[in-house]
Specification:
Blueprint (H helix, E strand, L loop, with lengths): L3 E6 L6 H10 L3 E8 L14 E5 L17 E4 L3
């Protein structure tokens, strides 16, 4: 399966940062979303045009924050 999209919630944490690098390197995913309290600095990840970064407040988030987004796979590494 190629051309899939993946969303990571909490990609700057201990687990999420490794997962983000794996997804960027993977040919299975053509779109990757990194949503979290902060985003990974570009200097810490490989250059890619398939990454969408967005800062979100998990304490006040509601479903409308994701209303227009469609993801094939969602990884929740936020704790």
């Amino acid at each position: 399966m190629s051309g899939q999209s993946a969303l990571i919630l909490g990609a700057t944490g201990a687990t999420g940062k490794h997962l983000l690098k794996e997804l960027i390197a993977s040919s299975h995913f053509t779109k990757i979303g990194e949503y979290g309290r902060r985003v990974t600095p570009h200097s810490q990840i490989p250059a890619t045009n398939k990454l969408e970064q967005k800062v979100v407040d998990f304490e006040t988030i509601n479903r409308t924050a994701f209303q227009n987004d469609r993801w094939d796979v969602i990884f929740i590494t936020y704790v």
